[in-house]
Design brief:
The protein is an alpha+beta fold and 152 residues long. 27% of the residues lie in helices and 59% in strands. The longest helix has 28 residues. The strands form 2 sheets. It has a 4-stranded antiparallel sheet with strand order 4-3-6-7. It has a 3-stranded antiparallel sheet with strand order 1-2-5. It comes from Candidatus Korarchaeum cryptofilum. This is Late embryogenesis abundant protein LEA-2 subgroup domain-containing protein.
Length: 152
Amino acid sequence: MRNSLILIPIILLILIASALYLNDMISSAKRISVNVERMEIAGASFEKVTINVTLCMENPSSYYYSAEEIRYGIYVEDAKVGNGSLNKIAIPPKSRVCESGLMDLYYSGLGKALANLLSEGKVDLNVNGTMKVNVIFIPVEVKFSERKTIKL
């Protein structure tokens, strides 16, 4: 009986410490920033343009994270013209990691932006997305949004 009375505060202390640690890891994961480093035209054909998109993730915390999935959409004047994704990226503590991926933008979805691209040689794109980061066994969603201009 006396041993169980001693174990109860110890177990409670362990549970409280674990909850505080997990909370710190989750709040640190939400501070990971995702930036569109570069968008370059990698190729073009009569029906589409292929864009190389480079995303950089910056982890200011001292925890190691794994981004299981990064999904983003590209918009021109509020119209979605393409999707992209990256899978399984390791984000070490206090580091910046960049990954690139190719995506196709079909001219049929570009509308007015295609006219700007042909007349001005550039177009403004909005990139909106989410990154799912695993914190022990809890997925944490990190949202990002950025505006970029690509030139021919």
